[in-house]
Amino acid sequence: MENSADTTYDEDIIREEHLPNGDIYVGKFHGPVPHGFGKYTWTDGAIYEGEWDQSRITGKGKVIWQSGAVYEGEVVGGFLEGSGTLKGVDGSFYDGSWHMSKYDGMGMKTYPNSDVYEGIWKEGLQEGDGKYTWSNGTTYVGNWKCGKMSGKGVMQWTNGDLYNGYWHNGLMHGIGYYRYNDGIVYVGTWSKGLKDGQGILYPAGSKIPCDPLFSELFGYTNNCPSVNFKGLCPEKIIFLILTLVRLFRRSPRISNGNIPVIEGGCSLSQEVCKIASSSSGSKRDTENEGDMVYEREYMQGVLIMERPRYWDELKATSVKNRKKNLWRRQVKGPGETIYKGHKSYFLMLNLQLGIRYTVGKITPVPLREVRSSDFGPRARIRMYFPHEGTQYTPPHHSINFFWKDYCPMVFRNLREMFKIDAADYMMSICGGDSLKELSSPGKSGSIFYLSQDERFVIKTLKKTEVKVLLKMLPKYYVHVGAYENTLITKFFGLHRITLKSGRKVRFVVMGNMFRTELRIHRRYDLKGSTQGRFTKKENIKETTTLKDLDLTYVFYVEKSWREALFRQISLDCMFLESQSIIDYSMLLGIHFRAPEHLRSHLDQDAEPLESENPAACNSSDSVNTDEIFRQKGFLLVAHEPGSVSSAPGSHIRGSMVRASEAGDEEVDLVLPGTGRLRVQLGVNMPARACLKDQDKTAGCNEDDTYKVYDVVLYLGIIDILQEYNMKKKMEHCVKSLKYDPLSISAVEPSLYAKRFISFLDKVFPEQ
């Protein structure tokens, strides 16, 4: 027994060992385990030949799979780890860093079609900074995310076209400039690969002042007198971008999706060609030709407005507006992110601390029906938050403050009613990201904050508004519970912060009506009154909330949808009238689709690119062609819960609308390049927009260019915290002496409701 126990192994002798499962090892051993150099053959034909460490495949080696793929490089614990090369059976080749058998770190991959990517990888996917070169010579240098071009980058096509700006999900998205091969330049905004919004077109040879905003976006220096796009070297731009993005810096993770094969660049539109030919054929003189620019506005790639301007005139009248409107428009959405040092920074920290404390305290309490004691100013949670912390509150880096949370059980039940998870609610408002501050669209002076995911809007309130909300809250709770499709503002929390100085700031948390994948091109605040209800033209920007007299469209929706809409508006107005509320308004958001007769040409031009880029057609696979219904220019399909692009927003919870053309079935709205959207009352509602004067004369003639639009509407009744009190009665009396009493906003509640509904009846006429 002792002899058998003392069996010895010679480490210098190569031995062959057959394992019970049929695998074979030939190589060196250390004791009974493989150690050193050896060859391992699996039963399926795969082979590893290289270094071993105490029975573990570790060191440098070569792996040959049964398929014919070959890896040579470093291996740790049986995983491809470190640096190495992989030759795929399809002809692809990768040379770079590995982690856990996936591309990770700096590496270069050559694809079977001869495309080449060189840059940062993470977990097998491109993410961070990199350069992609297509086999036809088209190049992209910039940022990647989830296997697609996202962030800041430059693409140069083989025909000489060049785009420098922001990308998202593989498409041009955000601010940027596009330089055509003949020297014409367009600077503006894109949305999902199409020009969308305002911009400026510069004819060939134009000189652009080197403004700091250009410098920040495109990498130019501040002291250069001007930049001639026609003479700018594309290779130099790519080199500058490479330097800016620091190509060899490790970056976060991204996806290993198929790389879209782009053949050629975007062709110059017919409108640009016309401008180029007309500007060259009708020159005033050589000196002044370069001073002419063209203000433009696009809608999903279709030009809807153009105005020739001289650069000196444009610069003198709109430099300040351009900075606010175009160049500072961020891809991530509206609002200014609150940073450390911002005037609202400590207020934001206090709000986040208080909500985190309140929601954490109330959530463990078993859900129950609300009681009368849950309402009123005495139903509250109060707590002091010193910066050093207490046994009940955590330490923090903000200033000391007192916190009050009103009616916590009621608002907890309202959040449950709208299927808002407590953890999601806290993460949205109190997570690692800062809130964003919005400018107030009204005269109230309230400050608006937006959560980073844009699910919730937080608004500061006056003391009188808090009293009104607490007074109406019992009836509001009943109304919202009884009518799931109500259009009234959804409230999710009411709070107060008191600072040591004695300053009190009151907040209400609401659902964001405009949380959508679509771009809201126009916003209207409609009251039904006319006195002072217009916006000065010089103050109108793309993000301006317009008023009653600014509205030049009427909207046609399906008959059954219109009936349901006005039924709900009437119920909501009855509730507000019962609470003596006035001054409320219908907030209307409009997303314009390109006119159908113009978009068809655009779709034909885009087909070759879309067919090669599956990601650009994310809705086509989910559409059942047997269940397609037409609502004018829109595509409606039978609703499939698992196919919609996103879950309902925090401002809705009601049932979906039904389309008569679909056999009175619930439907989804399919939008090319966006996906499928749930159609609910006031949310994602397709409609037809007609100009008012045209509607009165010739009706909605679909052949009349730029007169009829497919639109997607978002509706909600807001500003419901103004009572018809003595102050408003006095306002009515004073203004009635000067203006028509029916035209002013301050009228008694029943008249206000009737006028409000009557006005909306004209905005949404019957077909």
UniProtKB/TrEMBL annotation:
Enzyme kind, highest EC tier: transferase
GO cellular component: plasma membrane
Start and end residues of each PIPK domain: 341-764
EC number, UniProt record: 2.7.1.68
InterPro entries registered for this protein in UniProt: MORN, PIno-4-P-5_kinase_pln, PInositol-4-P-4/5-kinase_C_sf, PInositol-4-P-4/5-kinase_core, PInositol-4-P-5-kinase_N, PInositol-4/5-P-5/4-kinase
Catalytic reactions on record: a 1,2-diacyl-sn-glycero-3-phospho-(1D-myo-inositol 4-phosphate) + ATP = a 1,2-diacyl-sn-glycero-3-phospho-(1D-myo-inositol-4,5-bisphosphate) + ADP + H(+)
Pfam families membership: MORN, PIP5K
An example molecular function term from Gene Ontology annotations: 1-phosphatidylinositol-4-phosphate 5-kinase activity
Keywords: ATP-binding, Kinase, Nucleotide-binding, Repeat, Transferase
GO terms classed as biological process: phosphatidylinositol phosphate biosynthetic process
Keyword Transferase among UniProt keywords: yes
Lineage: superkingdom: Eukaryota
Protein known as: Phosphatidylinositol 4-phosphate 5-kinase
Species of origin: Rhynchospora tenuis
Lineage of origin: Eukaryota, Viridiplantae, Streptophyta, Embryophyta, Tracheophyta
